[in-house]
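Need the bound structure for adenosine-5'-triphosphate, inputs here:
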Amino acid sequence: MSSVTVRVPAKVNVQLSVGPLREDGYHDLVNVFHAVSIFDDVVARESDSITVAVTGDWADLVPVDDTNLAVQAARALAKHAGVCYGADLVIHKAIPVAGGMAGGSADAAAALVACNELWGLRLPAEDLMRLAADLGSDVPFSLMGGTALGTGRGELLTELPTTGTFHWTFAMADGGLSTPSVYAECDRLRATPSRGFWPEADAGLLAALRDGDPHALGRCLSNDLQPAALSLRPALAVTLEAGRRLGALGAIVSGSGPTCAFLVEDAAHAARLAQALPERAPIRATATAHGPTPGATIL
Ligand SMILES: C[C@](O)(CO)[C@H](O)COP(=O)(O)OP(=O)(O)OC[C@H]1O[C@@H](n2ccc(N)nc2=O)[C@H](O)[C@@H]1O
Ligand SMILES: Nc1ncnc2c1ncn2[C@@H]1O[C@H](COP(=O)(O)OP(=O)(O)OP(=O)(O)O)[C@@H](O)[C@H]1O
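Answer from helper R.:
Posting the output first, comments after.
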């Protein structure tokens, strides 16, 4: 096999409850992930070494050295399998960079799947999941896709049942937010230390997902990182309010931000919102999407 292409989705967190800061610097989470139809494609071609190139709107923001998460994933896979094969990786990027939609994690998950196939390793899904968790807290979900409850630092996943399709509009901001900085701001803003406090999955939210009820889901959306993202980027409040005024069923910062996510009635509503938002909010771009979608998949 000389070339493999893997398609991988972005995520939005429909519940992100941040528990205590752990000794290892991570926070325990109740993290309800939902994969949406904004995709990066990662192409892996046979080569003597591991290299990466990036195309697409956000390409200039992505490192093309060994810090690229897709390169780190390919290296981790080769080490785990005890092989010294190479791969030229090309990332076709549509997921915003440092946007709170797990863009780098998606590319890492796609590289694991692509190189496993390209190199004929046939490693089982459990091995890829373990490697994914070592690469980053969001990487296992990028492999899995769908809708899932993440606990621990977000890497311990349980698939959640859903009905039908949820429709979304996303507003991408100019400039990213650093995930560690947003968690640090969350800790700073909390009046009392969060040690000893254990969040739980919202029963109403799980029922809304199971029943395919976007109105109920819109009312239940929650993100404990939102106050921190708004504190670091106050203009996001304007974007969220504009979406609410335009009839969104729910408006929320996606993960660590600064992308804002709007749950809407249907595809036509998503398109109207995507068209109207740029006149009313300080944003770089909008995109419509639906979820849930599968995780990293060979095309
Ligand atoms: C905000 C989310 O995107 C929600 O899904 C994730 O929690 C972030 O996941 P990620 O980008 O894969 O993050 P990682 O690469 O694992 O960690 C980056 C940094 O984020 C912070 N971090 C991350 C996950 C977590 N459960 N607690 C944390 O405090 C830590 O400072 C960590 O050093
Ligand atoms: N393949 C990659 N794609 C995007 N960013 C990458 C990649 N590899 C490394 N990075 C670096 O990771 C940083 C975080 O980017 P990323 O797009 O993963 O953020 P994010 O989507 O906010 O993450 P998350 O939602 O998982 O917290 C970027 O600023 C970039 O320097």
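Comments: The chain has two domains: 3-159, 166-291. The pocket of CDM (ligand 1) is lined by residues 13, 16, 25-27, 29, 31, 102, 105, 136-138, 153-154, 179-180, 183, 255-256 (CB under 6 Å).
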